[in-house]
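A reminder from the course coordinator: this example appears on the midterm review sheet, so study it carefully.

Given structure:
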């Protein structure tokens, strides 16, 4: 029904431009909807429509030999595991910012916090730089108890996303590296 209405409206616009009256348009015999050929184009020799043959398949028209198509580069989802995580921390009382290196699975104390990175990954050099580390941070309370205040992933490109926030100290990941000027832990 909608196609027939659209066709009738199009015919009215066409005939109104040529000066045909509305009564003449209503007397037109429109073809049934099923007989409309989407590949029909007007023939310049007469006012009728000439039908074009639709292609049997688009693949035949655009067939490209496989050797002409370059191979897609392999997906680079692998990350580089590093042995050292570099952190920055701020003492909010003094305003001093300190950078420090921590070997993976080792613990370093920063003020009243103990920072332990479990893994530290960087992206491949050919990819956009991304550095992340899974970190555990414990606080040594005034009663000499150790309380876990953070466990999770830290991202160097979004330090505020998962930074350790403490009333006195903040710690965030700066980068990961394969070696440090500090000597590696014994064992």
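Designed residues:
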């Amino acid at each position: 029904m909608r196609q027939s209405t659209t066709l009738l409206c199009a015919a009215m616009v066409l005939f109104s431009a040529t000066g045909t009256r509305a009564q003449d348009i209503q007397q037109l015999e429109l073809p049934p909807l099923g007989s409309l050929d989407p590949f029909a184009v007007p023939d310049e020799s007469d006012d009728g429509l000439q039908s074009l043959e639709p292609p049997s398949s688009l693949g035949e028209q655009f067939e490209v030999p496989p050797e002409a198509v370059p191979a897609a580069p392999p997906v680079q989802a692998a990350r580089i595991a590093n042995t050292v995580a570099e952190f920055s921390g701020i003492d909010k009382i003094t305003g001093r910012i300190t950078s420090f290196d921590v070997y993976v699975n080792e613990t370093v104390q920063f003020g009243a916090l103990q920072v332990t990175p479990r893994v530290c990954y960087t992206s491949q050099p050919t990819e956009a730089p991304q550095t992340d580390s899974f970190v555990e941070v414990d606080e040594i309370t005034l009663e000499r108890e150790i309380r876990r205040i953070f466990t999770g992933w830290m991202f160097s490109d979004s330090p505020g996303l998962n930074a350790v926030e403490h009333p006195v100290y903040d710690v965030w990941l700066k980068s990961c590296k394969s070696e440090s000027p500090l000597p590696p832990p014994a064992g």
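Residues 80-177 form one domain. The chain has a mean pLDDT of 76.
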